[in-house]
Amino acid sequence: LRNNRLHRVKAGQPAELVRNTEGGNGTTFDLQGRLIVCEGDGRKVTRMGADGKVEILADKYKGGRFARPNDVICHSNGNLYFTDPDKRVAYHLREIPGHEGDNNLWDGAGVYRVKPDGTVDLVANCEYPNGLALSPDERTLYVANTRSTKYVHAIHLDAAGNAVGRRIFADCSEGTEPGIPDGLKVDSQGRVYCTAPGGIWVWNPDGKRVGIIRFPEQSVNFAFGGPDMKTLFCCAHTSVYTLRVKTPG
Predict the structure, then answer these.
(1) Does pTM surpass 0.85?
(2) CA 168, 31, 228: angle at the middle one, nearest 5?
(3) Which 8-state DSSP code applies to residue 97?
(4) Cβ-based burial of 27 (10 A; exposed 0-12, middle 13-18, buried ≥19)
(5) CA dist., res. 111 & res. 126, Å (int)
(6) 3-state class of 211 per DSSP?
(7) Which of 124, 172, 178, 229 could form a disulfide with 248 if both were Cys (CB 3.0 to 4.6 A apart)?
(8) Residue among 194, 204, 154 at smallest CA distance from 174
(9) What is the rounded distance in angstroms from the CA atom of residue 42 to the CA atom of residue 51?
(10) Are 184 and 152 in contact (CB under 8 A)?
């Protein structure tokens, strides 16, 4: 992230530089297998095809540039959801018009959507949205809120992927160990995983916490992978760790 480099890592092999980025952070693949990257320094979301060509998918909303796109996921209908926390951009550099909806203090921070036709819209405002993930049925969008109130939001979606309600799913403010709500994923049984103080916290779909996965360093982001999706890859401050789990992502 800090060196603005996107790497590909295969087990037992040296890391391979894919390309340089502009603050590349959260990544995902779209339905065609193209790599989607949130490039915070560039204030944009980009897409890289198999030929290596990079194009901008989203960089503005209502005429204003995004603040710092952070994480992104892909819905089975092709919609891309991404978070844009604005509090890492100086006030005079914020460009998206605020004062929308029922929250007249909204400053542009939120969860946005890029539809397959390229349309960009706001799904939900949020204080400091970070990692995000969908439930297995794609009717709940979980969003990690990182700053003053540390919690995981559950945003309820209709069949078209529009927000129809929200609630606090989990409180992550307990504990004094390092860690904040950041990376967030869901396994095939609907359990929610999110970095928090001490490691990766895990909750059942009903919000009951079942445990904490601890690593030698502070967990920052992670993903399920491997041929059976039962390997947890965890990005920490200086290393990438792997852990075998019983339930696939």
Answers:
(1) yes
(2) 75
(3) -
(4) middle
(5) 7
(6) strand
(7) 229
(8) 194
(9) 22
(10) yes
Q: pLDDT for 138-166, tens place per residue?
A: 999 999 998 767 899 999 999 999 999 99
Q: Where are the beta strands (DSSP E) in 103-208?
A: 110-114, 120-125, 129-134, 140-145, 151-157, 163-171, 184-186, 192-196, 199-203
For β-strands 151-157 and 5-8, DSSP reports them as unpaired
Instruction: Identify the CA nearest to 160 among candidates 123, 118, 108.
Output: 123
Query: Which residues have CB under 8 Å from 216's CB, separation 6+?
Result: 236, 239, 241
What DSSP line would sit under 191-202, residue for residue? -EEEEETTEEEE
Tens-place pLDDT, residues 31-69: 999 999 999 999 999 999 999 999 999 999 989 999 999
CB 230 within 8 A of CB 207: no
Question: Do residues 160 and 194 lie in contact, with contact meaning Cβ atoms separated by under 8 Å?
Answer: no
* More confidently predicted of 109 and 89: 109
CA distances from 144 to 45, 65, 96, 129, 191 (A): 19, 22, 21, 6, 15
Rounded CA separation 143/193 (Å): 11
**Locate tokens 């792997």: which residue?**
242
Which H/E stretch holds residue 164? Answer: strand 163-171
Q: Other C-beta atoms within 10 Å of 41: how many?
A: 13
Question: Who contacts 43 (Cβ-Cβ below 8 Å, separation ≥6)?
Answer: 59, 65, 66, 67, 68, 69
Are 75 and 138 in contact by the 8 Å Cβ rule? The answer is: yes
The answer to whether 84 and 129 are in contact (CB under 8 A) is: yes
Which of 131, 134, 114 has the alpha carbon at shortest distance from 122?
A: 114
